[in-house]
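Chain A, query sequence.
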Amino acid sequence: FFASVAIGAVSLSLGDVLGAIVSRFSSAPLTPDQALNEAVVWDLRLARVLTAMIVGASLATCGAAMQGLFGNPLADPGIVGVSSGASLGAIMVVVLQISTFGMWTLPIGAFLAGTGTTFIIYALARPGQDGGDNSKLLLVGIAVNAIGGAFAGYLTYLATMEQLQSLTFWSMGSLSSARWITVSISAPLAIVGIALLYHWSRPLDLLALGERQARHLGVDVRVLRRKLIFVTALLVAAAVSFNGTIGFVGLVVPHLFRLMIGPAHRLLIPFSAAGGALLVMLADLAARTLDPPSEIPIGV
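Chain A, predicted structure.
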């Protein structure tokens, strides 16, 4: 965390970072150097680093929940359609030049399309009273993701060169749009969502025994599935709508920790949150510093 705040175009020492953080709450006069350090830390880097933590923790815990739900360590949050839906929403906003909400149109469009795609997948996967099953949900998710990708591809084909440049950067992910206002929106969602996923640790453990066994042990699998999918959709949509599509984190981080600490979700979810935050902070640090003054997309 402190390395991410300290390293950049203007490099700071650990003492400079701590001093800049403390000085914001102090009324003591600042020297020009201290004022510069405070501006760099508070106006440029701190919100970005906190965004990296929020995004990484959200994606990794959602990956752990989806892998627990589907009983497959290769599952990731994209299965329920949030990422592809958010991408399609962002592409529609850019190519069709929608500007209903001003500067907020792109994140709002991505959020609504991401969550809407999840609702469509869930509705199609449970046509009967039994509420469907995980295999049906997985297959419908793959199909709807493919259809969304086809629509996104067609809109990309229609885009101008200027729009293509914007879409390419968004599709690879970037934290350059991180601001305190975006942190204040995404942080409460992340905290509540991760806390809920942690609260459902024991039912997720029982679900690993199989759906029938989990039902015999008192788990309402249909209700648990619905809760997990909707909370995951909200968490991932909030993460990607501001920062673009960021893959890999939700797939790999929970799998790595499952290998190291075991499958118990009581440990897996908080470890995944910390590991996801660490991975995205490190990736963003690399994105900002490997090719100065340019910035590499964080997805790369």
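Residues 172 and 299 are 5 Å apart (CA to CA). DSSP finds 13 helices and no strands in the chain.
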